Amino acid sequence: AQSVTQLDSHVSVSEGTPVLLRCNYSSSYSPSLFWYVQHPNKGLQLLLKYTSAATLVKGINGFEAEFKKSETSFHLTKPSAHMSDAAEYFCVVTLILTSNTGKLIFGQGTTLQVKP
Amino acid sequence: DGGITQSPKYLFRKEGQNVTLSCEQNLNHDAMYWYRQDPGQGLRLIYYSQIVNDFQKGDIAEGYSVSREKKESFPLTVTSAQKNPTAFYLCASSIRPAGYGYTFGSGTRLTVV
Questions:
Q1: Contact A109/B88, CB-based, under 8 Å?
Q2: Which of A48, A110, B70, B93 is 20–30 Å from A93 (CA)?
Q3: Regarding beta strands A110-115 and A10-14, do their DSSP bridges make them parallel or antiparallel, or are they unpaired?
Q4: pLDDT value for A27
Q5: Tens of pLDDT, residues B32-85
Q6: CA nearest B13: which of B72, B84, B67?
Q7: Chain B nearest C-alpha distance from A104 (Å)
Q8: Residue B5: pLDDT above 60?
Q9: Per-residue pLDDT band at A29 (split at 50, 70, 90)
Q10: SS3 string of A38-72?
């Protein structure tokens, strides 16, 4: 079965310090994993995705994530937080439904607070 | 620019009324989806469609209906049978094969008054 667990519901960092948002996954086959960001009352924006290519994935806005199969983890990091990074972040795994449809399985989300 | 357009952004409904949320995409994607988001929770799948004139129930389809008469359009109707319809609704589409790339609309916030 496919599932994701985001280990922190809320993370608070100071501007300019590193960001770490943790995600563990469970998958019965080689997964496609995503990180999405959501600002208040907005849709979801894709930060990055892992689809069995390089294990270190670079995304937009300076974010990156490393796929670690042995640890079943896909943690999101950023070297230096910016005030505009404050948002809700979702770790997502895909459950394949048909050849051209897949259901996104969402974690519960992590709220990132960035303090001046 | 290609993308997904959801309308309206905010919608108010009286109890007992049906309402329809619009979702249009110009990405030429075959697959389209409707998700529901409640406060403090991730998204849950309501319905999905892999091609025109075909759609399947997701995890929480009760009280909802959809149609897929055109590739570009996937409207969602929230019926009076939906017991707790107040939520944020997101439409998405994806390219083939499944698992490679999803695009989301900006959402519709539905409030029952």
A1: no
A2: B70
A3: parallel
A4: 83
A5: 999 999 987 778 999 999 889 999 999 999 999 999 999 999 999 999 888 899
A6: B84
A7: 8
A8: yes
A9: confident
A10: ECCCCCEEEEEEECCCCCEEECHHHCEEEEECCCC
Q: Best interface-test mutation with B: which of A42, A104, A110, A111 has the largest number of B CBs within 10 A? A: A104
Distance CA B86, CA B103 (A): 23
Q: What Å distances lie between residue A78 and A38, B53, B100, CA to CA?
A: 17, 43, 24
Cis geometry, peptide bond prior to residue B39 (ω within 30 degrees of 0): no
Pairing of strands A87-98, A56-58: unpaired
Show the tokens assigned to B34. 């409707």
Q: Are A54 and A114 in contact (CB under 8 A)?
A: no
Contact check, Cβ <8 Å, B107/A42: yes
> Which three-class secondary structure state does DSSP give residue A2?
coil
Separation between Cα atoms, residue B7 and residue A57, nearest integer Å? 33
Q: Is the dihedral of CA A109, B110, B76, B57 positive or negative?
A: positive
